[in-house]
Amino acid sequence: MNEQKITLTADRIQAEYEKGVQYNTGIGLYENVKQCENFVEGKQWEGLKSKNLRPITMNVLDPIVHYKVAQIVSNDVDQDIEPFLPDEQAEYAAKILEQSIDRVVERTKLKSKHHMVLRDACVDGDAALYFYFDASKQSGLGGVQGEICAEQAMNTNILFGNPANSNVQEQPYLIIVRRRPVSEIRKDAKRLGCAEWESIEGDSDGLYKGDDQQTDSDNLGNELVRFWKSEDGRVHYCRSCGRVMIEQDVATEMTLYPVAYMSWKPRKNCYHGVMEIKPLINTQIEINKQWTALAIMLRNNAIPKLVYNRNKFPDGWNPDATSIGVTGDVKDALTGVAGSMPIPTEATGITSTMTDALKSVAGANDAALGNVKNPENSSAIVAVQTANAAPLALTKIAYYQFVEDYERVLIDMMHAYYGMRQVKITDEATDPETGDTQEQTRVEMFDFGAIPVEALDLNIHIGEASYWSRILQVSTLNNLQTAGVMPNMVEFLSRMPEGSVKDQEGLVEAAKRVQQQASMQQALQGGLTNG
């Protein structure tokens, strides 16, 4: 969807921003995100003022979020780029792109951001990654300046031109809201030649996470980065803050918006997804109330209390005193103990049942977490966990699509910004004399502007790295060896999952030597017997 040629001003961008904020406010996004964030962080008694009451927080939501996120990121994600049509030049470019993406992912720490992206998607409903090219950043390559940078954005900080469509690349425009110190915004504006840079001011409208923790929120301002596509399909952007235009229309060679966006659960006709935590909050509140009530009952009724004659002890009872002064006859200074009131088992049972029911509804019950009766039976653990993780399959697909989307964006940005650069190519070569295949690395110059982007087909392959699958493999190998199916120790060690034992290659070589020595001894004994 291309946008007609328009004259962009700071006032127009501000009006589009306010329109997007109005839409988000209408669906309760800001308040719901704030509430969900507070409850997951453990701030579940916000606004309560009491001198005597010490409320208890039994945070069930936080482990539920961590469990669900861990279920999705337990597998590592890697890319495999294949040309749409078999062509030697396209295959060569695909190999370079694979290694170039790995380099960007490593330098921007993208894989470590995956956990936070999924965590935000689970709690807030959506999450986004925003990419930009920083021309001033050192690339680490000789004679080349500029690197691709990645920035995580909350769903409250991204506004779609068409909020009824969740497809990023079909938007008429996008606005990224960056909460930045006013001093940095002014510095950028001055560097870019903005005459009104001194008039840039901060603002605090309470819409964004962290604003209420700021001691001086006027130090932060909303930098609005607006993206749109021209009639030829190229991406343009501009930047503003309030009524000041920081950077005018900048035409790029990109064909994709530099944004990857995912929803935990999609919502019909809305670019914001369903918040996983929101329906569980009322149950969490009741659990906290019940545990607090039980604690008050325990403090007031369950502990026996000393009863004494106030006339005999005018100064009160001091339990730590080494000697006690009594008025009148010491024999009459009798005390007693008031009996305690037992806590009804139904009270604790209801609370525990409600907690277990909440975990079960959220899909994070004991079976899903691996708390089965027979922990030695790893096959049962895997089967139970696989069955409980099935409801997350759709979210996993959305996550894999999210990774594919941002890798397409990285390729598009390399094509637009990199130009001629040194690349390190690692491939396999065959020795003509021995026929052995060896891995070799070489450095070449490559023109990223000549990448046949349209001719590449990007596939995402998932590598197994889960904890229980590793245990299952080891258990299966042990069973095979015990049953005599795999009596050879070399075969057993070579099939162990990588990283299961220290110096696995050394152990395999040692097992081979032992096997050779045993074979030589058998051969020697056989020769002596025959002789």
UniProtKB/TrEMBL annotation:
InterPro entries: P22_portal
Pfam families per record: P22_portal (PF16510)
Protein name: Phage portal protein
Organism: Butyricicoccus faecihominis
